[in-house]
């Protein structure tokens, strides 16, 4: 259903604006980027958008309400104190302080939830004084903590029968809107994710507007569980985690290092062809650089910080950009030298809480295919267009003819206080940049407050991002207000074999770092001029991308990425010598090959190697030795015989061209 945009008048009820035929599909409304319950009154004249339950926002609202129904049911069934919920495009969870339960309890909880839903209980919104809300939740210390931290003098509470929630909303109008739901799993966590926090039970679930969507989700989820990268990684012996020695830090085995190194090698080729120069930067810096870059204030609680005996403070790097800036600052550049583009597979470290880590998708140490370009403003369009081309080439090479989506995050000019803005002093003519929300907005040269706000740099940069997308005929969605305070950006999402979109690549413009580090180049007039920094990552992190790759291919990677490209098996020990000569020939031709000379039967050898997912199984016996050939079995169990030299040429071509499909 297309978005419904209506002209509205202050004082109208949003619920009165819903067409009767859509009263089971519209769950909320939006005005000026703010979501409203249908029971709310229109705050001002203007345009309002009605939110369909099948839209992304509608699904989040539905799942938020389903999480409350879960809490309602658990409180009625158990002596539980509800803490907080969260929801996303997959489902929802709710944390409780309660005695341990298991998935065996889910049918009972689901029955109670179904009873609440079948009663179609109205979900009512109340605006209350903070003191009254504190009194309402006086027996729940977790809600009291959240109220004290988040409630203004007036805040909202939602009522669902006898169940109350301190919540901003919005919610579906009644519980009957939840047409299909399922509890999925259970986990242990801690309050606020703190290591020594109170132990909590986290219950995961999902909800949809209809049962078909739920069934499709559950089917895909079952397939995704079969393809879980952690299971595949164990079967293929790719990586390990040691929670005692280095929690959250991946260790790559020889097989895993093959995949990682091949991806790094390929990205190196792409970078070189597009004039990105590879550098290397340290892993540990004095904390001064993180304070200067602004990362210290933002990431301090998520950084690994330490102090030496001499009193110096250091931190493991959470970002690579200050290192690349340090290299840029070693010289003076003319406008003719620009752009200067540095890249590296840079490992960074962030202190993820123990309950938030998850295999390669959320480790504490990970490597980014990071790049930072130092550009003139007039070079933004060309460089962004080049990066979009690199992104297209990389993912079509590695994943095949994949589907992309593009998000353009831009500033909201109605909230300039959120951004770094250029000002011109009307008194002395000085031009400078300052975050509009700063407490002291005055000219640094003459202290005048008679300033003119200039959006031209933002406008030009944003328009260049638009033009780059449009020049490649790429459809994109624009998100006002989602830009970082230091510049607009493009996020790229890629769909995998399970129809899941993953946000991978980012192209971020940055006006802030050049000011913070006083970066400049000499322009055509011989004067200093600030460059713009472009932060870019294509894979994102190697760890997360490897996880996506393993699940996309179910571990059956294209031959160029496969840790074992050939697995040689003689039919009996009489042909061990020929098998060894074939294996040696493969190795000499840079084909990753292993040989199995064990006394097991061929069928058992093949069965045992399946989980390692070699590209080709090579079987040799009397006929092959006589013909100087090999019998080749592909991943679909199709077998052909081929002269050894011919096979070597074909597989080398398959590897060098980075083919996704096998030769037969």
UniProtKB/TrEMBL annotation:
GO terms for cellular component: cytoplasm. InterPro entries: aa-tRNA-synt_IIb (IPR002314), aa-tRNA-synth_II (IPR006195), aa-tRNA-synth_II/BPL/LPL (IPR045864), Anticodon-bd (IPR004154), Anticodon-bd_dom_sf (IPR036621), Thr-tRNA-ligase_IIa (IPR002320), Thr/Ala-tRNA-synth_IIc_edit (IPR018163), ThrRS_anticodon (IPR047246). Pfam families: HGTP_anticodon (PF03129), tRNA-synt_2b (PF00587), tRNA_SAD (PF07973). It comes from Picrophilus torridus (strain ATCC 700027 / DSM 9790 / JCM 10055 / NBRC 100828 / KAW 2/3). PANTHER family: THREONINE--TRNA LIGASE, CHLOROPLASTIC_MITOCHONDRIAL 2, THREONINE-TRNA LIGASE. The keyword Ribonucleoprotein does not apply. Its main location: cytoplasm. SMART domains: tRNA_SAD. Its cofactor is Zn(2+). GO terms for biological process: threonyl-tRNA aminoacylation. Belongs to the class-II aminoacyl-tRNA synthetase family. Residues 228-558 form the Aminoacyl-transfer RNA synthetases class-II family profile domain. This is Threonine--tRNA ligase. Binds 1 zinc ion per subunit. It is found in: Cytoplasm. Its EC number is 6.1.1.3. SUPFAM superfamilies: Class II aaRS ABD-related (SSF52954), Class II aaRS and biotin synthetases (SSF55681), ThrRS/AlaRS common domain (SSF55186). The gene is thrS. Zn(2+) binds at residues 321, 372, 535.
